[in-house]
Each structure stands twice: as C-alpha cells, then as structure tokens.
Amino acid sequence: MAIAFDKALESSHLLHDIAAKVKNGDRLNRQDAIRLYDSNDLVTIGALGEFARKRKAGAGKEKYVYYIHNMHLNPTNFCVETCRFCSYANPTERSKAYTWTVDKVLEEARKGVESGINEIHMVGGLNPACDINYYEEVFRAIKSEFPQIHLKAMTAVEIEYMANLEGISYRETLERLIAAGLGSMPGGGAEIFDEEVRERMAVKKTPAPIWLEIHGIAHELGLRTNATMLTGIGESVANKVDHLLLLREQQDKTGGFFCFIPLKCYYDGTTITEAEVAEPSGYDVLKDIAISRLVLDNFDHIKAYWIQLGENLAQVAFSFGADDMDGTIKEEKITHAAGATSPLQLAKENLEYLIASAGYQPVERDTLYNIRRIADIGLESQPELALAK
Ligand code: V47
Ligand code: SF4
User: Is the CB of 262 under 6 A from ligand 2?
Assistant: First the structure.
C-alpha cells in the first residue's frame, strides 16, 4: 500500500518544504530531520521514504526488496564488557558462557553450508581467549573448506578490542583478517553515539570517533560495511538525528557503507527499567526507517531487520523506505536472548512470500548486493511456515 507521493505532498502542509526538498533531491539538514521526528504525519513521512527508496533503486528496480540466504554464527558469548542492554552476555547467560573451538565453528558452518547459505554473519563477545590468531584460524578454516562462502564478520567493537589485545593498529588488524578471508563487516556495536546515553547504558567500548574511524579504514582497505543504530535505550530524537548525521558524514568521506539497519531494544534479562526508557512503538520504528532513508541520502540500502521488527512490521517498512529484509538467519541469539518472539529463522519461500504479499518484488542477493535470483512467486497459496533450507 505505497502512498502516492504527490497526494502526500498536497495533503501535508506542515512538512511541505521538506517534501519539496526530497522531491528535488536536496539534502535534509538537522532541523528537517528533527521536524520529521516531531511530526505525527506518519503517512507523509512514509510516502517521502518510499519516494526516496524508489529513486535510489533506479529504473526497473523500484519494487525490489532484497534478502539473503545466510546464517548467523556466534563463536563466543563471553564478553569482558557489560552493556546494560545486552542479554546475550548478561550475568545469567555469562554463567553458561561458551567459547567454541575452531573445529566447532567449522562444524556449525558446515551445517549452514549444507543448507545452501552463501553468507556467514559472524560476531561474538569480547573474549581474551578469542584473539586475532583465533579468528585468523577460524576464517582460514572456513574459507579453505568453503571458498564460495562470504564472511561478513567482526564489528568495529571487536576490531578495537582485538587490536588493543594484540598491541597493533586497527589497520593492521583489518589487513590480517582480510588476508585470512574477511569479506565485509556488519554494522553492529554503534548503539547510539551520544556519550550521555552510552554512560547510562554502561557502554564503555568503542566511542563514536573510533567506531567511525575503524569503518573508514575498512572502506579504504576495500571492505564494504554496514551501520546500525540501537533505539529504546533512553535516547532522544536529537540523539538519533545526530547519530544519522555522523554516519552520513563518514559516508561522504569514505563511501563504503552499504546498508543502514535501525535496531530496537528488547529488554528481557537486562537491567533496563520501564521508568528510564520508552520502548519504541511500531510508529517509532517506521519513523526510524523512513527518516533514516531520507537523511542517509548517500546509503543505498535500508534494512527492515525482520528478527527485531517481526514479519508484519517489516512488511509495512517496505512502504516507508526499506529495501532489504536481511536473511534466513538459521539461528539468531542476540535479540532472542532478550525476548524477541520472531522465529529463529525463516525459509527463503517465507521471506519471498512476505515481500511479495506486501506488493514488492523479492530479490535474492549476495552480500555485495549482486542479484542471485529474481523470485517468480505467485501469491495464490501461502507457503507453510518453514525453517531455512
Ligand atoms: O550491536 C544488543 C544490538 C546488535 C540487544 O550489519 C540488541 O547486516 C536488541 O548489528 N535488543 C547486533 N538489540 C546485531 C547487528 C546486526 C543485525 C542484523 C544485520 C546486521 C548487518 C547487523 O544488536 C548489537 C546491539 O546494537 N543488541 N542487545 C537487545 N537486547
Ligand atoms: Fe559485550 Fe557487545 Fe554485549 Fe556489550 S553489546 S556486553 S560489547 S557482547
């Protein structure tokens, strides 16, 4: 149910000047973004996001929504940090903390590869037992057995930790991991760049300048990377806007971000109380999708991460500017440890059905957004909910 842009433009008086900027392809400024967040005119905001998405997609691809057949692998959930929103590495989970051997990582990867995945998304806690030598060994083992698999791994937080552990630069850390098989970097660990929120959430790792510097170095070394923003941790509208503006500025400099992923916090197992944060509503999530699409005019892709949004809200997000759903996943731990109730994985057919039944064209991609398959899907019968194959 995409909304006609011109109708939205006519009907919205308050956002008229912003809509005109979007239509002309002019860059939005901080005040514009804050006004969009402060507006209740969700229909217009969505229409603007959809308009910007279509223009960015280019002719013939206006309806494309991408997904990937992938798996998440988390070799360790032991972490020296204690970010308050993280249930994955919280004290209860910590008492059951695990660290996989290289063989165990390989065994888990093998299960995914047998099911036809083409990307492994690997991240883990900050664990002194998993230093750069460990990850070099893991990457080499995976790439030598499965050279066709793309390794999207290591957040900027892990790069910072590993570099400090080893006493080497971020650049050298990245160069060594690239030589071992690292293909791209996910966008995790950015949280909210604002220092006060980070302090309240006990986030001691990787402040904004270092997170951005590491992504900049990765881009210079030829790696594509993603970026995230975690909401629902007590941030203000201004904090979100400033986060987006810092990402846009970095992208202007080094140009290697592929995709932006707005994340929303789940609270089970955390110490975060209702009194200190506002849980993002569906309304807030859709604004994050649309406004990030509008502000991040130099990012090609905005992801509706179905694991956190749930399948239904992810479908609506396509009409607000999202053009990616992430992947089949196989087994998600970080958000499910904190209470997410979405399935742990979905089969390709289910993702395709979700995209097509929202009125969009499902496109299976690889990590670098090369098209693997344009799905030809009829909507007569909904596929049984199935696990990723
Ligand atoms: O960095 C931690 C967040 C992130 C919670 O790059 C939580 O394609 C919700 O970055 N509730 C990891 N979120 C996930 C991530 C990601 C996911 C999918 C695709 C990509 C990509 C990246 O999850 C962490 C943190 O910001 N997180 N705890 C929680 N309780
Ligand atoms: Fe560790 Fe990352 Fe969890 Fe923070 S969010 S406790 S750094 S795993």
Answer: no
Measured between its terminal Cα atoms, the distance across the chain in Å is 30
Residue 305 alpha carbon to ligand 1 centre in Å: 9
Distances (CA, A) of 67 to 45, 271, 279, 305, 309: 24, 34, 27, 10, 15
Residues facing residue 71 across a β-bridge: 120
For the ranges 151-165, 266-280, 365-379, the one whose mean pLDDT is highest: 151-165
pLDDT tens string 299-311: 999 999 999 999 9
| Residue 207: CATH number of its domain | 3.20.20.70
The Å distance, Cα 187 to ligand 2 centre, comes to 14
Average pLDDT estimate for 162-174? 98
State the pLDDT at residue 97: 87
Yes or no: say if 224 and 190 are a contact pair by the CB < 8 Å rule. no
Q: Is position 36 within any domain?
A: no
Cβ partners under 8 Å of residue 389, min gap 6: 115, 116, 347, 348
Tokens 């293909």 correspond to 183
Domain annotation covers residue 32: no
Prediction pTM value: 0.94
Q: Hunting for tokens 């440890």 — which residue is that?
A: 337
Look at the chain and report how many structural domains it folds into. 1
Angle (nearest 5°) at CA 124 between 136 and 288: 125
Looking only at Cα atoms, what is the longest distance across the chain? 61
Region 315-331 average pLDDT: 93
**The predicted structure's pLDDT at residue 12:** 61
Instruction: Tell me, yes or no, whether 28 lies in a domain.
Output: no
pLDDT at 341: 84
Identify the CA nearest to 239 among candidates 34, 50, 72.
Answer: 34
* Per-residue pLDDT at 376: 84
What six digits make up the tokens of 338?
């904190």
What domain range is 160 assigned to? 57-374
Residue 156 lies in a domain: yes
Question: Which tokens belong to 343?
Answer: 């399935």
Structure letter (DSSP) for residue 320: G
Ligand 1 atom closest to the CA of 186, numbered from 1 = 6
Q: Return the ligand 2 atom nearest residue 85 CA.
A: 5
**Ligand 1 proximity of 327 Cβ (cutoff 6 Å):** no
CA atoms within 13 A on the CB side of 118: 16
Any ligand 1 atom below 6 A from CB of 187: yes
**pLDDT over 90 for what percent of the chain?**
82
